[in-house]
Structures are given as C-alpha cells and as structure tokens.
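In the design runs reported in the main text, the only information available to the sequence generator was the tokenized backbone. The following block is the verbatim input for one such run; it is reproduced so that readers can re-run the procedure and compare outputs position by position.
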C-alpha cells in the first residue's frame, strides 16, 4: 500500500511552490505549471519521491542506524522536535553548529562537557565554587543543552541526514556531502534537487506540508525499528529452542540410575565380588 496519495498531498498544500522569478531551473522536471506567477509542483512525482525516500529511511532504521533531522526554520522546529523526540533519533532545531559533522570530535567534547557539569552538581564540587562561578557554569550548561542537548546520544556520525529546507540548511547539506552521508530533503521550487540524494519536491514553508512529509518519514522509521525488533526476538527464540538438543546429549536418567544400583551392590558384596561384578558391567557398557 502506498504511503500517501495525490489527494492527501493536495490537501496539505504540498503543491504550492515559490514565485516564478525565484525558481531554480533544476526543479523544472518537478514543476507542473505556473498559476498567478507561482509555480505548482507536480504531486504525482512527489508521491513517487516520497515512496523512494521512505523505503530508504525504513532500511536505515532497520539496520539500527541513526538519522539526523535538521529543521531550524520557525514553522518547522517545534513540529520536528515533537515528532522525532519519541523516535530516539537525533535532531537539530536551533542554530546549526558549524563543523558539527566535519569536526565531529570537537562537538563530542562539548557534549562531554555537559556530562562533566552534571557530575560536578552531584559530587559536591558546586559547593566549593563561588556564587558567580556557579552562575557562569549553569549558564554554560543551559547554552550547551539548547544547542546540543538533542544530539547528546549521537556517539558517532549519523547514517543519513534529513533536511526540511535545503536553502536554509545549506551548511549542513554541504558537510554531509563532504563526508558522503546520504541526504534526504524537502526541496521547493527555489532549491536545487541535485545536491541531495533523496529529494522530495514539495512546499517547505507551510507547516501543514512539512508535517505531512515528516510524518511519512517518521512512520517509515517506526516500521524499520519494529522489523528490527521482531527479527531480534525471532533470533532469540531460535536460540532458546536449540537448548533441548544440547541437553539430549547428556547422560540419560537410565544410565544414572544404573550406576546408583552398582553403588548399592558395592556395600553388600565382598571385595572380590565387587571387583568382578563392576568389571563385568563396565565391559557390558
């Protein structure tokens, strides 16, 4: 079953592009027509591109890898944060920290600094500081949390990048391209679709349009994570079923019982009979 259709995208306003004079010629294949000086996006092609992007996104999640979502524009930041937070995926909705991908080691140091400040609060170090020093450290922690708190669990470079507006997030896209990280993006008529691996032609300004496309990506990730969990559970069940086969190779209850009987005979017989009887039974075994 298709993840979306023409009517759903039309209702969300995904077809509205920018003014004709602001268009990018590379978007020509995705433009249906011009109306009142505004370009209209071909939603039939958007449906195809959404399906391609969602399938790839699902596969990434199924492999247990992280997708970094980037949306710093006003109408997208809160929407993306609320949807991605539940997925346990990293996201950036404040200012993009330059060099976040190309200089990832430095970003990790800043994240570790947050953990260090938290540790200082619990081990009594704060009590030995002056009031001014505590205020400075607290402000520094709040600033780090605002800019990097949403990527605190990102211990390595993400497997992919999803961007809401290619024009606004051009620095993030450029860094991902330098590192050969696959990029997904909503591309409006003023954007270049050739700079991303999975372009999704659509309105990147209206919150309803952004909500629709991001929701489809979120559903794809949830499907991938669910399949990954099912495969793990299935593998664990198969390993559990193998246990009885190993136990079958151990000595049977009949053999253990026969040895117990031999021990009983040892107590009643004289030494000579014991030697003869034990040797005979061992030979028989």
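Verbatim output:
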């Amino acid at each position: 079953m298709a993840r979306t259709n023409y009517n759903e995208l039309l209702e969300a306003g995904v077809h509205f592009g920018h003014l004709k004079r602001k268009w990018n010629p590379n978007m020509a294949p995705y433009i249906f027509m011009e109306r009142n000086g505004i370009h209209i996006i071909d939603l039939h092609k958007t449906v195809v591109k959404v399906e391609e992007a969602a399938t790839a996104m699902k596969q990434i999640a199924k492999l247990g890898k992280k997708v970094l979502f980037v949306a710093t524009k006003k109408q997208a930041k809160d929407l993306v944060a609320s949807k991605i937070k539940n997925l346990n995926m990293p996201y950036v909705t404040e200012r993009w920290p330059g060099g976040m991908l190309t200089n990832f080691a430095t970003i990790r140091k800043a994240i570790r600094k947050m953990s260090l400040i938290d540790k200082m609060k619990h081990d009594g170090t704060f009590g030995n500081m002056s009031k001014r020093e505590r205020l400075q450290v607290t402000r520094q922690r709040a600033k780090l949390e605002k800019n990097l708190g949403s990527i605190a669990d990102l211990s390595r470079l993400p497997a992919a990048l999803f961007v809401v507006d290619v024009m606004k997030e051009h620095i993030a896209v450029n860094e991902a391209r330098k590192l050969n990280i696959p990029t997904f993006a909503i591309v409006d008529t003023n954007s270049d679709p050739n700079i991303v691996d999975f372009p999704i032609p659509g309105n990147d300004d209206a919150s309803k349009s952004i909500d629709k496309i991001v929701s489809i990506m979120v559903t794809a990730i949830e499907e991938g994570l669910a399949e990954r969990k099912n495969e793990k559970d299935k593998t664990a069940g198969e390993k559990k079923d193998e246990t009885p086969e190993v136990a079958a190779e151990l000595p049977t209850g009949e053999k253990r019982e026969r040895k117990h009987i031999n021990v009983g005979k040892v107590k009643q017989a004289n030494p000579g009979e014991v030697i003869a009887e034990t040797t005979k039974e061992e030979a028989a075994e």
